[in-house]
């Protein structure tokens, strides 16, 4: 059975307070290069499928599907990988796909067409498979990339942004220090790594609160579940 459900999740407020400004990161580079590269004067559309995360018992698999577009102009140029100026970027649709045994549920995660590429990827289930932790990349017009994290409740279909490392420029997922607590490393561009080597924000999933520690931490679990499929481009059109 294939079900498509429209979610009430509204992303405007969610994406106004983000951290980590750079050009491109890891998973984000694959769809961005496929959209831009040598096609800066064309209209390019693609659908990407994120990495697929499976629960430890393999009963549930979760991934994201994003429909992205760039509208090129005659005067746009390429540096071989990306278009200049970095404008006219759009996300037409983004969905979370939940495979549970023989049932597939697709949930729309946006209500309007934002002027940026939105690239989501799952990281981990929680210990009871009630929610997933995921990372987002927002490749904005004019070239900046915002990175952050959120949880998605698999029972209530509620998305919650994690406000980690709000005082710094960079936030990096490190793992679970307990079954309920997730560690994020906070740092600043250009800063000596020894100065920020022990700055972590800890997200407590039981109450949604974040607290800071300035000492060495011990990661007990890198993730719950495993990545069973890599990111891919499942459809691409050039006009």
If you had to describe this structure to a student in words, what would you say it looks like?
The structure is a single chain. This protein is mainly β and 239 residues long. It has 1 helix and 19 strands. The strands form 4 sheets. Strands 1, 3, 4, 5, 8, 9, 18 and 19 form an 8-stranded mixed β-sheet that branches. It is globular, with a radius of gyration of 18 Å. Residues 1-25 have low confidence and may be disordered.
**Number of continuous helical runs:** 1
Instruction: Please compute the radius of gyration using only Cα atoms.
Output: 18 Å
Distance between the termini: 34 Å
Oligomer: single chain
Please summarize the sheet with the most strands: 8 strands, mixed
For the record, the count of structural domains works out to 1
Q: How many strand elements?
A: 19
Shape: globular
Order of helices and strands: EEHEEEEEEEEEEEEEEEEE
Average pLDDT: 87
Q: Flag low-confidence runs.
A: 1-25
Percent of residues in helices comes to: under 10%
Q: What percentage of the residues does DSSP assign to strands (E)?
A: over 45%
Structural class: mainly beta
Detail the topology: elements first, then pairings.
Layout: E1 2-6, E2 19-22, H1 29-35, E3 43-49, E4 52-54, E5 60-71, E6 77-78, E7 83-84, E8 89-100, E9 103-108, E10 116-125, E11 131-140, E12 145-153, E13 159-162, E14 170-176, E15 181-187, E16 200-204, E17 209-213, E18 226-229, E19 232-238
Parallel strand pairs: 1-9
Antiparallel strand pairs: 2-12, 3-5, 3-19, 4-5, 4-18, 5-8, 6-7, 8-9, 10-11, 11-12, 12-13, 14-15, 15-16, 16-17
């Amino acid at each position: 059975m294939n079900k498509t459900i429209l979610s009430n999740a509204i992303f405007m407020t969610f994406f106004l307070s983000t951290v980590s400004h750079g050009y491109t990161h890891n998973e984000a580079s694959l769809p961005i290069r496929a959209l831009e590269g040598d096609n800066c004067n064309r209209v390019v559309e693609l659908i990407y499928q994120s990495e697929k995360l499976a629960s430890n018992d393999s009963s549930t698999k979760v991934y994201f599907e994003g429909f992205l577009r760039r509208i090129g102009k005659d005067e746009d140029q390429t540096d071989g990988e990306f278009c200049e100026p970095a404008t006219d970027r759009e996300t037409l649709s983004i969905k979370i796909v939940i495979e549970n045994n023989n049932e597939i549920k697709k949930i729309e995660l946006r209500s309007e067409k934002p002027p940026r590429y939105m690239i989501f990827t799952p990281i981990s289930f929680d210990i009871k498979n009630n929610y997933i932790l995921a990372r987002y990349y927002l490749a904005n017009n004019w070239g900046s990339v915002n990175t952050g994290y959120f949880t998605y409740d698999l029972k209530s279909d509620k998305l919650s942004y994690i406000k980690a490392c709000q005082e710094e420029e960079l936030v990096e997922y490190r793992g679970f220090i307990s079954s309920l607590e997730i560690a994020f490393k906070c740092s600043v561009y250009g800063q000596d790594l020894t100065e920020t080597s022990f700055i972590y924000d800890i997200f407590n999933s039981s109450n949604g609160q974040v607290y800071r520690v300035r000492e060495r931490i011990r990661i007990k679990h890198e993730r719950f579940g495993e990545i069973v499929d890599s990111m891919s481009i499942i459809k691409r059109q050039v006009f």
